[in-house]
Design a protein that fits this description.
Blueprint: H1 4-10, E1 15-16, E2 29-36, E3 40-45, E4 49-57, E5 60-64, E6 67-71, E7 75-79, E8 85-89, E9 93-101, E10 113-116, H2 119-130, H3 139-153, E11 157-158, H4 168-179, H5 187-193, H6 198-209, H7 213-230, H8 235-241, H9 247-258, H10 262-267
Parallel strand pairs: 1-3
Antiparallel strand pairs: 2-9, 3-8, 4-7, 4-9, 5-6, 5-8, 7-10, 10-11
């Protein structure tokens, strides 16, 4: 059964992008960063090497094995060799990919998964983004890339930051909120709009998403806020657009979910 959330996203006009390598990597480990315009897509493809996809800024989505991973810069997606996947985004984003030859993938997970990005790993990605390795690579660049692979092999596995659901009832409610993150209706009001009950929605959120409805909604608003911060909107405007009565209430939620303030997030990209 197709994922309704994926179907809804696919209806948006797309900028089609092409993967950089077709048959072979130019080195055992390669790093690449690129800008994705709004509504861009790398159509479904696979390759005989592993890939770690990370959002340097913005939010990048990866569709793989019927699952929809939507993650901010604190996470990344590991894709083992030969796994078909699609990359896409709704807002403009900078992403990076670390390509790892199949012979070096043994220490890394053998199935697609989201990995937590530590401050050290993020700093390494930023350095490589600012100073792309040459081809052929120099010895110090090879060592740095190997250290990054080593760090990823020790990274904690996490679920999708904003999971989706194939359940028709829950998927309908999630799509309603994704199209309007500032919707201020209560869970009871939203359940009624979906011809359901608050108790049913609460149970399905825990079963399907692994979190409460309130947690999911907060994460949705954080992702929406990140995009608006990059557009240069003020914190006050973002708070109003996302349905908060005051900027302080929005800042408190943002800090609680991310561990940082909106302005700090803007300063650090």
């Amino acid at each position: 059964m197709s994922n309704p959330a994926i179907t809804a996203i696919a209806a948006v006009p797309r900028h089609t992008l092409r993967a950089p390598f077709s048959s072979a990597l130019p080195a055992a480990i390669c790093f690449r960063s690129a800008q994705m315009p709004p509504a861009a897509i790398y159509p479904s493809h696979s390759h005989p090497w592993g890939e770690f996809v990370h959002a340097l800024s913005g939010v990048v989505e990866v569709l793989v094995d019927g699952r929809h991973y939507l993650v901010p810069p604190q996470y990344g997606i590991w894709l083992p060799p030969h796994v078909p996947h699609t990359g896409q985004n709704r807002q403009a984003a900078w992403h990076s990919s670390l390509y790892v030859s199949e012979s070096l993938c043994a220490p890394l997970p053998d199935e697609p998964c989201a990995l937590a990005v530590t401050p050290f790993v993020r700093a390494m990605h930023e350095h490589l983004h600012q100073h792309p390795p040459s081809l052929p690579q120099e010895a110090n660049e090879e060592r740095l890339l190997q250290v990054l692979v080593d760090q990823l092999s020790r990274a904690s596995r996490v679920g999708s930051y904003l999971p989706t659901s194939g359940d028709p009832l829950l998927a309908r409610l999630l799509r309603m909120l994704e199209s309007a993150p500032g919707d201020t209706r209560t869970l009871a009001e939203l359940a009624q709009a979906c011809n359901s009950t608050e108790r049913t929605i609460t149970r399905r959120c825990q079963d399907e998403l692994g979190m409460s409805f309130a947690q999911w909604r907060q994460r949705l608003r954080v992702l929406a806020a990140m995009a608006m911060l990059e557009q240069g909107k003020t914190v006050e405007t973002i708070a109003f657009d996302l349905g908060y009565a005051s900027a302080s209430a929005f800042i408190a939620m943002f800090r609680r979910v991310t561990g940082s303030t909106p302005d700090a997030c803007r300063r650090h990209g």
